[in-house]
Amino acid sequence: MPLILVVDDSSYQRRVICDMVREAGYETLEAFDGEDGLEKVATGRLACALVDLLMPGTGGLELLESLKDQGSSLPVIILMADVQESIRKKCMQLGAAAVVTKPVDAAVLIPAIGQALDRDRS
Where does 1-122 show beta strands of DSSP type E? Predict the structure, then answer.
C-alpha cells in the first residue's frame, strides 16, 4: 500500500486530509511543517507527498525547491488556498505533480494522487 506524506502546519487540516487519503486505501504519514516533511522524505519510503503551500518556516515552495535541488523524483501535490495563477505556475515549474485548491475535495485530491503515482511509475 503506497505511503502518502501529508505536510501541513494545521493539525485539523492534516487530520481531514489523512482521513480522505486513508479512505481511498493509502497509508499516511504526517509532518507538521516543511522541515519535518523533508526529514520524512529522506527516509525514502514515500510514494507521494501532499504539501501545504503556506507554512511558517519552510513552506511548500521551499520544500519543492529543496527536493528539486536534491534531484528527488518524489511526486509532490501542493495544497493551497491561494488561487493566483502565478503561484500555481511557479509550483509546476518547481516540479509539482499537481496543485489542489483548499478546502480540499476528495473528488479532486484522490484522482490527483492516482495520476501522480501513475506518472511516477512510467
Answer: 3-7, 27-31, 48-52, 76-80, 98-101
Say how many C-beta atoms besides its own lie within 10 A of residue 92's C-beta: 14
Please give the residue range of the domain that contains residue 99. 3-121
How many distinct structural domains can be found in the chain?
1
Q: Tell me the C-alpha distance between 50 and 112, whole Å.
A: 10
Query: Are 80 and 96 contacting, i.e. CB atoms less than 8 angstroms apart?
Result: no
- Give me the CATH number covering residue 68: 3.40.50.2300
Report field, pTM of the whole predicted structure over 0.90: yes
pLDDT tens for residues 39-71?
999 998 999 999 999 999 999 999 999 999 999
Q: CA-CA distances (angstroms) from residue 76 to 79, 101?
A: 10, 14
CA atoms within 13 A on the CB side of 68: 14
The Cα 69–Cα 78 span in angstroms is 17
The H helix count followed by the E strand count for the chain is 5, 5
